[in-house]
Design a protein that fits this description.
Belongs to the HIPP family. The chain has about 110 residues and is an alpha+beta fold. It contains two helices and six strands; from the N terminus they run βαββαβββ. It has a domain of about 70 residues: Alpha-Beta Plaits, CATH 3.30.70.
């Protein structure tokens, strides 16, 4: 697995669509991210960086390799624990009654 970042001239949605269409035809790609503001294409997977650059260039865009390296492992998200309220309307006392066989009724609150 490698994380490849390419610098690509992306100016509009059509440019973005053309780059994505060209890149997704390659095999071995796990994740593709396009950042139009920064002009970067990030690909994570088992793909050759030179082949990836050539494919983007064939789509009519200027591309150059910025970095190639191992992807960062995802950071485990710690669940945000919300404090529970002290009580709710579902947890009110419910009267329970018990009637033994040989004596009168008994009521427990």
């Amino acid at each position: 697995m490698k994380k490849i970042v390419l610098k690509v001239n992306i100016h509009c949605q059509k440019c973005k669509r053309d780059v994505l269409k060209a890149v997704t035809k390659l095999t071995g790609i796990n994740q593709v991210t396009v950042d139009g503001e920064k002009g970067t294409l990030t690909v994570v997977g088992d793909v050759d960086p030179v082949l990836l650059t050539e494919t983007v260039r064939k789509s009519g865009k200027v591309a150059e390799i910025m970095s190639v390296g191992p992807p960062k492992p995802p950071e485990p998200k710690s669940p945000v624990k919300k404090p529970l309220p002290p009580w709710c309307y579902d947890c009110q006392l419910v009267p329970v009654s018990y009637v033994p066989y040989d004596s009168g009724p008994c009521s427990i609150l």
